[in-house]
Structure formats: structure tokens, C-alpha cells
Amino acid sequence: MKKSNIKVTICEERFSEFAKKMTEGFGKIQRNFIEHMLLGMSRSQSVLLTDIARNSIKGVSVKKSNERLSRQLGKFDAEKFDKNRMDLTTEILPANKMYLVDDSEVVKPCAQKMEHLEYVRDGSDGGKLKKGYHLSEIVCVDKNRQPASVFSKLYSVAETRFESANTITQQAISKVVKTVGSGLFVFDRGYDDVKLFEFLEKKKQKYIIRATSKRDVLCKNGVFNIENVALSLKGKFSFQIRFQSGLKENLKASYTQIRLPKMPTTPLNMVVVYGFSKEESKPCTY
Fold first, then answer.
1. What is the pTM of this model?
2. Which residues are bridge partners to 153 per DSSP?
3. Closest C-alpha among 75, 76, 56 to residue 66
4. How far apart, in Å, do the first and last CA atoms of the chain sit?
5. Please, which residues have CB within 8 angstroms of residue 60's CB and are 6 or more apart in sequence?
6. How many C-beta neighbours within 10 Å does residue 133 have?
7. Which of 6, 74, 76, 82 is the most exposed place for a label (fewest CB within 10 A)?
């Protein structure tokens, strides 16, 4: 047997084990459907139903295969499937979990009749407005330091049941804490919102939020702009970080205790990092 055939056989065996766990609790018809869907997506590297059908069910025409998959897709229990996925994901996560929360988008520039299409800013194309959907995503760093998705949801502000992006984020965090467990939630500056601070405090979660330069804080019995507070501090601690590209940065950091004007009884630690080459004149505040 050729080495390439051995690799294929081992891959198929592992896939079978994975599919068995993912289909636990399903009936025979739905188990076959899920296995065919997973196998078709894996082989075709596509999520288009025709591509999946062409690469999943052997000895059946693409048309017949497409019809079978489409019929079962309408009966699919997504919640049960997602529970099985989360059970598998939880097995590879460390005891001290770090969650990375981020919003993105899926653009569909050629779509005409997809439900609730709206204009979103395409981050990979300079923020240009294109038709598509928003994507709320939370990943956790697993035991091998790789990102594992623990929450993913497409949504549109054009949906009648849509409330706000804050609501989506809060629902996502609540679900992750309930199904996977508490951890350290990390957010970029787009999440610098008092409502999120209040929500995380209420949930008793640890968090790091990158601050915007417009944020005002209570510090030393006065209200000051957070950037001015950051510039008043000295880099007390020195350390070096290395990016995957090989680039190294020699940085300094300081910290001080602050409060938010709308949360005057809640002490927060503000961490300031100095020395990033792209923004040497501006410290990063967290």
C-alpha cells in the first residue's frame, strides 16, 4: 500500500471516530445525513450543498444526493449537534480558560435574495460597505495554544427580533459561561462600553478590555482622560514579546487603579503598555 493511501485510510478512520461522537443521540437517518455532510465539506472544502453532494454519497447522482441532503437539512436538530460539538471542544480546553471575543462579518456581494441581507463594513477591504451579515465569535485558547470556537452566530440588524449588538454579545458570554465555564474574557477597543463592564461585573467574570482614547476615568479624586493618565505613568516593568512573524518588541508596562464615572464603587486596574513600534507615541491602555 502506498504511503498516500495509508494517510487517507488513517484520516478516514479518525473522521469516523469524530463523526460517531458528533452524531451521538441522533437516529440512523440523521446520523447518516450528518456523516455525509461532514465528509462532503471535508472533501470539497466547500459549504455549497451541490459541492457537498458531489463529494459525499457514492453511487448516487449529484441531483438525487442534493435532494436527500436538502430534505434532511430542513429537519436538522442544530442545538443537539452543537451540544455534541461543545462536549468535544470542552475536552481540549485547559482549566484556566482565556476567551477571545470579536465581531466580524461575512460578505455576500453577489447575493440577491438571501434573508435579511444588510450592508456591513468589510474589514478585509478597507471597511467598504458590502451586502452581508454580522458575525459574533468567541474562541478559547486550547491546550495546544490553538483557537477553538466556543460560540459563533451570524446575525442581521434587519431581523425583526434583533435588539442590539450588545445583547448578542451578552447572550454569547452567558452561553459560554454556562456550557464551558468561567474564564478570562479578552476584548478589543470596540467593546469599551460601560454596559459591558456592568454585565461582566454582574456575571463575576474576569476580563481585559482595550480602552479607547475617548474614555474618561476617575483617578486620584478627579476625572481625567484615560490617555492623559497613561502618559503620566512611567514604564515600571520591562519585558519582550515575539510575534509569529519573528518580530520582537521590547516593551514597558505600568498599572494603576481607576474607576469609571458611571461605576464609581467598582475599582478597576488600568494596565498601560508602551513601546509598540507602530504606535510608539501612544500607549495601549487596558
1. 0.82
2. 136
3. 56
4. 57
5. 68
6. 23
7. 74
Query: Higher-confidence residue: 269 or 276?
Result: 269
Using N-to-C axis directions, what is the helix angle for 3-22 and 78-91, rounded to 10°? 120
pLDDT digits (tens, 9 = 90+) for 129-188: 889 999 999 999 999 989 999 999 999 988 888 888 899 999 999 999 999 999 999 999
213 phi and psi angles, rounded to 5 deg: -70, -10
Residue 210 grid coordinates: 482595550
DSSP SS3 for 21: helix
Give me the half-sphere count of Cα atoms (radius 13 Å) on the Cβ side of residue 191. 26
SS3 of 217, please? strand
- Confirm if 205 and 185 have CB atoms less than 8 A apart: yes
What DSSP state is assigned to residue 211? P
Share of the chain above pLDDT 70, in %: 93
Q: How far apart are CA 167 and CA 162, in angstroms?
A: 9
Q: Please, which residues bridge with residue 151 across strands?
A: 138
Measured in degrees and rounded to the nearest 5, phi and psi for residue 144 equal -100, 15
Cα–Cα distance measured from residue 272 to residue 253, given in angstroms and rounded to the nearest whole number: 5
pLDDT level of residue 266 (50, 70, 90 thresholds): very high
Q: Are 71 and 53 in contact (CB under 8 A)?
A: no
Q: Locate all alpha helices (DSSP H) within the chain, ordered by sequence.
A: 3-22, 28-44, 49-54, 62-73, 78-91, 165-179, 194-203, 226-232
